[in-house]
Amino acid sequence: MCGIIGIIRRGNGDLVPELRGALGRLAHRGPDDNGVWRSTTIHNGSAFNVGLGHVRLSIIDLSSKGRQPMVDSNGAVITYNGEIYNYLELRQELKSLAHEFKTDTDTEVILAAYRQWGESCVKRFVGMWALAIWDGRQLFLSRDRLGKKPLYLYQDATAGLLAFASEIKGLRGVSGVPWQPHERTVFRFLAYAEMEREGRTFYEGIRELPPGTCLRYVPGAEELKPIRYWTLSDKQYDVDDREAVAKTSELLHESIRLRLRSDAPLGLSLSGGLDSTLLLSLLNESGIDKPPVFSAGYEEPGYSETRYIDIATGQLSCEPSAAVSDASPFKKDFEPLIYHLDQPSKLPGPYSLWRVAEIAGNRVKVLIDGQGADELAGGYMYYLPVSWSDATLWQKIYQCPDLFLTILGNRHVLSQYSLSLIWERVTGKVNRKRQLPLKPKWASEFSDVRPTWEESGDLNSTLRRSVTHNSLPALLRYGDRVNMAFGVENRCPFLDHRLIEYVSALPSHMKIRGGTTKWIFREVADGRIPKAILKRRLKMGFPTPLGVWLRKELPEVARQWLDNYRVLPFFDRWIDVDEVYNLLDEHISGKADHQALLWRLLSVGAWLKTSGIE
Predict the structure, then answer these.
(1) What is the three-class DSSP state of 83?
(2) Whole-angstrom Cα distance, residue 181 to residue 613?
(3) Torsion 554-555-560-562 (CA) sign
(4) Cβ 331 vs Cβ 560: under 8 Å
(5) Does the N-terminal peptide bond of residue 69 adopt cis geometry, omega within 30 degrees of 0?
(6) Separation CA 586–CA 198 (nearest Å)
(7) Is 214 among the catalytic positions?
(8) Is 121 helix (H, G, I), strand (E, B) or coil?
(9) Which CATH class name applies to 241-380+432-534?
(10) Residue 28: which residues within 8 A CB-CB, separation 6 or more?
(11) How far is Cα 167 from Cα 239, in angstroms, rounded to an integer?
(12) For the chain, how far is it from start to end, CA to CA, in angstroms?
């Protein structure tokens, strides 16, 4: 896990100061080493400067031989962020094809694979990556299938400029890159709690290279045309329960085996839920005795998973560490969290991830976590209405008691959301009477914007959209930014593309049965994890008690934040701050629960402030 930057610009200027400035803003991603490389090239009679930069978090081959940008014997140079987990197998295959290696890194394997198989080499990779290879004629960019590793682009064809970076903040200060908000994305977020769409970001002109794509860029090219090399298909397998469970277990074991490859200390993020507890059990089965595990929790009722964490750590082999948080550290962490996210977040859950990463960063460099299982196999409450609509009348009658028990078990979680919001998501329709503290003149510019949750479909198609578009991309972004803020690489065994492809193609009844979510993974976990966790119906998903804090410890702090944000020109243009104060007063008094909306508004203000947008 590292940070990368690249600039290609027409002309003869020196790119090194800009590269160094960008690397300074990405230093948290790679505290172990850094480097820059530059060259010049001539295309169609014009001179172009080419510069690549890298900050390194050393995970494989900790020696200085792994320094990047790395140049091979043919002059191709790479800057790369991620891990190719099957690099040892690829290395052996490439050796049999007469390739020689001077390091033990996966970086050198990528260069050899590119030399041997060209751009199709990425189809052979099992892992997570965002990489750039300059071969002397063109730039080759690629991003992993699920978009685990980030890559952001800006192009100005007229100026002959292309710039890219692991985080958007890396592009700030690159000459020619604008630093303005993309207001349509901001409106979608404020009105519907939705994130970017179609590769756009919260920044004007800065786009995300889509997951599962590659890009060839010749200096001076008029436009960028990503080429898709991977798509999650809509095929469905006709298999029985026994075969499905056995194959899923086999794929998950293989995923764990590869993701344990590390020359740096490794640990596990443990929430007390099914997914992370299953991973802890599989780590033990893989021979990892007493791995360090890290958890975060709160004292407030309805926000603590301590009971389940204690059960998991008591019955499985591990060395637990936990951060029990209150409002005090949140006051100082809120704006740094948003700074590292590079954008607002729709819920305060990333703060729990932040606390886990903070304590993990003091002991390990690699953190295994359970991200992805919920989107893949229907772990969230909002999948239940879709599953219910798919069921026949007899299935509904038979499954009704199980569904009722699941809803009852999640009543504390549901209480954190307004009834109007829950009703919107259940029906898939916007409440036309909803009131938002947005300036009417500004909001009227986006009257055509509709939320994606108005899209309908069966359970399997809904889950596929969650994996590739609606839910998982935002969670992967949070996981990457928060962990990298503390120099920690997070690895997600449930996101091995072979496991994703297989489970996605299983019939929907192997994901949700009545009120039983993630049925397929519960079957894999049966006999491996404590029964209390296997059978638990509560799905918390790293909740943060912001609503409680806003009523008790944070009222004055929240007002101070709003006072600071209202002087920001864009915040004042978008948001009716006086109405926000009224919402805050209603929330504090207990007349209404506005925590989700207040979080969005505050995180927009913190984003504008910490990003330096003016």
Answers:
(1) strand
(2) 7
(3) positive
(4) no
(5) yes
(6) 36
(7) no
(8) helix
(9) alpha beta
(10) 340, 484, 485, 486, 487
(11) 42
(12) 31
In the block, tokens 């709003």 appear at 562
CA distance 34 to 22: 11
pLDDT, mean of each 10-residue run, the chain (614 residues)? 94 93 97 96 93 97 95 96 98 98 97 97 98 96 98 97 98 96 96 86 97 96 94 94 98 98 97 95 96 91 85 97 91 98 93 95 96 93 72 58 60 54 56 75 92 75 92 94 97 98 96 89 97 81 85 96 97 97 96 92 98 92
Q: How many CA atoms lie within 13 A of 385 on its CB side?
A: 11
User: CA 486 → CA 127, 223, 259, distances in Å?
Assistant: 21, 36, 20
Q: Please, where in the chain does CATH 3.40.50.620 lie?
A: 241-380+432-534
Give alpha helix (H) positions in 97-220: 106-117, 183-192
2, 121, 318, 492: the catalytic one is 2
Beta bridge partners of 4: 54
How far is it, in rounded angstroms, from Cα 506 to Cα 502?
7
Which residue ranges does the chain devote to CATH 3.60.20.10? 2-228
Q: Per 3-state DSSP, what percentage of the chain is helix, strand, and coil (rounded to 5)?
A: 45, 15, 35
Residue with tokens 């948290």: 28
| pTM of the predicted model as reported, rounded to 2 decimal places | 0.93
Name the architecture of domain 2-228.
4-Layer Sandwich (3.60)
What are 260's two structure tokens? Answer: 């344990």
Q: Are 298 and 324 in contact (CB under 8 A)?
A: yes
Q: What is the CA radius of gyration of the chain?
A: 24
Query: What DSSP designation does 510 have?
Result: G
Which tokens hold the place of 247? 């194959």
DSSP SS3 for 530: coil
